[in-house]
Amino acid sequence: MKDVCERAVKLAREAGAAEATATLTWSRHAHLRFALNEASTSGDIERRALELHAAIGQRQASATTEDLSPGGLADLAEDLVDLVKRSPEDPEHLPGAGPQRYARIAAAFDAATAEMSPQARARAVGPVLEASSKAGLVAAGFHEVAVTRTWRLSSTGASGTHENTRARLSATVRRADGTASGWAGAESHRLGAIDGQALARAAVERCKSWVDPTAVEPGPALVLLDPAAVAGLLGSAAMALDARTVDEGRSAFARIDIGQKAFADGVSLISAPDDPVAPGSPWGEGGFAAQRHAFIEGGALRELRRTRHWAKKTGKPATITGGTMQLAGGTASRDELWARAEGAIYIPHVWYVRMLDPQTLSVTGVTRDSIFRVEKGKPARALKTFRFNQSITDMLKNVVAIGKDVELHGRWAAPALLVKDFHVSASSDAV
Amino acid sequence: MPISRRALLGTAALLPAARAFAWIPERPRPRDVAAAALAAAKAARFADVRLVRRRDEVVNTRDDHVIAVRRGSSYGIGVRVVHKGAWGFAAVPDATPQGARTAAERAMAIAEANAALRRAPVELASEPAHKDTWQTPIEKDPLRVPVAAKAALLIEANAAARTVPGIRSVRGHLESVAEEKAYFSSEGSAIEQMLTRVAGSLQISAVGEERGDFETRHIHREMGGGYEEIEALRLVETAPRLAREAREKLKADRPRPGKRDLVLDPSHLWLTIHESIGHSTELDRVLGFEANFAGTSFATVDKLGTLRVGSPLVSLYADRTTRGGLATCAYDDDGAATSRFDLIKDGVLVAYQTVRDQRGLPGFGGPRSGGCSYAQSWAAVPFQRMPNVSLAPGASLLTLEELIASTESGIYIAGNGSYSIDHQRRHFQFGGDMFWEIEKGKLARPLRRVAYAADTVEFWSSCDAICDAREFRLHGSFNDGKGEPSQSNAVSHGCPPARFRGIQVLDASGTRRRRAAEGEGE
To answer: What is d(CA B434, CA B252) in angstroms, rounded to the nearest whole number?
Structure first.
């Protein structure tokens, strides 16, 4: 595929581009959904896409195609360069990277995951359906494996490849009459790291235990957030760390100085391309090699995300990341965390989290499926779903304990957190 | 109403360069590619094939310059089968007879592997074989409007906003999409459609004197149609007013929490309709097919025909035939003809949105599907997606001005802000983009940080006035997410302004900020 990139870059240069970069992505995603204890839809999707970016002076544009034939590449290059010439100048455009040494991100790829067959997918889902049926419950869920290979080549000399696998399994198990629901989910770059049977047991147990739920009173509460809930809450934090919005006064972090201890002691927010749990891309903006960046370390704000343009304008270093983030794990084992969580509300995951007030990085959302009051180190009394209105910066300040193990959920790796003064706003009858 | 080929050719004359169906490549012919797939899947009880070419273009600006110009083209084939009682789907980017055979063989293998995980075979509602063409009516092909003209429009609008003091940042966005689809099925359907949609938006931010104090005002329009819909936005003329409103919000009061009467503008109410009624009346959610991700619904099938969702004034209908609707088309991705039908009639739940593989399931109604299937691309499995769902105008003559004049005390909300709803669509909390206090029938002063929370049924039951058809407007979104893997559906919702009595209003400022403002310190 490298030859396709070479041809595309050459054609763009011949058409008049001063600079050209080709990024070719091939992927294959296979999935199996299930509902009402049986398979529903299922697919095997092979894609390829060539993105060609070109610049002439300060004018730039990009275009994508799936047509990799010689004619298709020629059309793409000609159309793109024509588009560049007709585009206005972008004063923020900067030349792409010269020759780079990209790291090989070994943790991102697993050959066994890349080769999974339809039969193996059906076998992976079987135990979930069986556990649910045996318990007299109704399961819905999703199993997916994906492999992606990317080739990147630039006329400025940077070239590299990256391969990535991903697997996920999640299940929601409900009573047939809709009076209880339990969820469990896992995600990894290695399918072998996902224990489908344990996941099914957890979802079934949570559903069965969710009996006679009571409403949570509005106000501050101690909560024990599973990693999936933490990842769901943190989604908006990365945007707020953008240096430009901070410098322009349009971010909650505009109120915090670099070096200021604004969060709990153990809170560290890191992006590292070779993160073993959330491995990222070996390259970032402009094709520069991705680096490790600690945005928050030991509870203090250390660094902001800064584009190359904003770095040049402000005379500060750019942050080139591989696109993933980790809230670092702490020291508490699972048992220690649960022992400290007496009286807390245990929240496995959250739903529909949306920005409420960007000035305080406050989000609103709801808990989902079964939540419980923690008693004697265990989920004990069932509680009703509730809506929360919570500042994420406050949440990171109010962390009481941090779990040792981190889990991957989307682009985030996160540990379990015990958090005080989490703001419950209203109860809901949703199950 | 589908547009015939003859009418289509008439429409073509309106288009620059007479370009109606650029159509997916003529060689190999789509029908030959589809025939290869259908032949390879001949052992299947049902098979369908979609060849889809999607073209899109995005222009983004910030303040006085362009920051991104992107153009995309994607073409491939998706083959779906019902075999041994199970679904199978496969897609490849190679839209040739060989690629079609590969996709069909993979789809058959998946169905075969999953057959053991079915308790009952997949059954499809009957649908006649259709041979037809249709396209979104447009006046100006948005993909033929030069990028430079689009950039110039946004930059001029940005500049118009920045003439207002205190405006720190203006971002502009224009997006054009054309989806060209050829659908063929083992039942004999052969349907060609071209769906065109456009989006335009401005985001204007004003920064206050206090560090970290800022407010933003938005305008956006997303429609099924051509570039004429962008021109109708009148971005340059509108930008200064929005900029002034963004600045006014900086000094505006926060709301007094408590039960308030709300007058909701169509630019706001469309999203409330989408979240509370649109999603709760999708039959796949109601039955549990989306329980693991999008969720289920309070509107269960045992309540069909009896559940009072709203006041007798409230009627909501599904409609994939309305002009300008983002979900408008003549045939869905199951090959079923689209139509208009009631969901909530005089306040009562009367039907669900449906697709063909729900035949025989509770709540389906039938015998035909409601035509609500959609796949976001050739590489996506078709499944139930929302049609345009709209609130019927009030029967009595009533303008927005008259509605506000008849409101003693309340809040008028326009545009969209934060929105969040639980997984059964029972309890929600929505913000907005601009808010005005209504006092004695007049817009007294702007407010900021307003949100309201309600139970869906309580909310719609509190509706006591709906403006007439003169005030009816369509709004929508390109990006309604649902399903696993997640897919985007473009959908519109039409409504006139309406009033809702006694809704719980919140101060949406963060807790810390609220306490500080109330003198409790941080």
So the answer is: 11
Query: Which chain A residue has its CA at the smallest distance from B302's CA?
Result: A177
**Model pTM score:** 0.94
Cβ distance B152 to A88 less than 8 Å, yes or no, reads yes
Domains, in order of start, for chain B: 5-12+25-251 (3.30.2290.10), 258-507 (no CATH)
SS (H, E, C) B203-271: EEEEECCCCCCEEEEEEEEEEECCCHHHHHHCHHHHHHHHHHHHHHHHCCECCCCEEEEEEECHHHHHH
| Facing A249 at nearest CB: one of B76, B87, B207 | B207
Residue contacts between A and B (CB atoms, under 8 Å):
278
Q: What is the mean pLDDT of chain B?
A: 92
Per residue in B53-83, pLDDT (tens digit) is 999 999 999 999 999 999 999 999 999 999 9
Query: How far apart are alpha carbons B222 and A72 in whole angstroms?
Result: 31
**Alpha-carbon distance B92 to nearest alpha carbon in chain A (angstroms):** 5
Taking the CA of residue B404 and the nearest CA in chain A, the distance in Å comes to 27
Q: Which residues, other chains included, contact B462 with Cβ-Cβ below 8 Å and sequence gap of 6+?
A: B311, B454, B500, B501, B502, B503
Is B424 within 8 Å of chain A by CB?
A: yes
User: What backbone torsions phi and psi does residue A199 show, to the nearest 5 degrees?
Assistant: -65, -45
- Residue type present at position A130: E
What is d(CA B501, CA B454) in angstroms, rounded to the nearest whole number? 11
Cβ contact (<8 Å) for A63 and B119? no
CB contact under 8 A, A140 and B292: yes
Distance from CA of B154 to the nearest CA of A (A): 12
Q: Which of A348, A239, A345, A217 is CA-nearest to residue A295?
A: A239
pLDDT in tens, B147-192: 999 999 999 999 999 999 999 999 999 999 999 999 999 999 999 9
pLDDT at position B28 over 90: no
Residue with tokens 């007798």: B312
Within 8 A of A352 by CB-CB distance, chain B residues are 420-423
Mutate to test the interface with A, among B117, B169, B303 (most CBs of A within 10 A): B117
- Of all residues in chain A, the one with the smallest CA distance to B75 is A66
If DSSP codes are grouped into helix, strand and coil, which group holds residue B404? Answer: helix
The answer to whether B358 touches B316, Cβ cutoff 8 Å, is no
Measure the CA–CA gap between B88 and B393, rounded to whole angstroms.
Answer: 42
Q: Give helix then strand counts, H and E, for chain A.
A: 11, 19
Nearest Cα of chain B lies from the Cα of A92 at a distance, in angstroms, of 7
B window 115-134, beta carbon within 8 A of A:
116-120
Q: What pLDDT, on a 0 to 100 scale, did the predictor assign at position B25?
A: 67
User: Do the beta carbons of residue A200 and residue A184 sit within 8 Å?
Assistant: yes
Q: Which residues of A touch B289 (CB under 8 A)?
A: 35-36, 40, 140
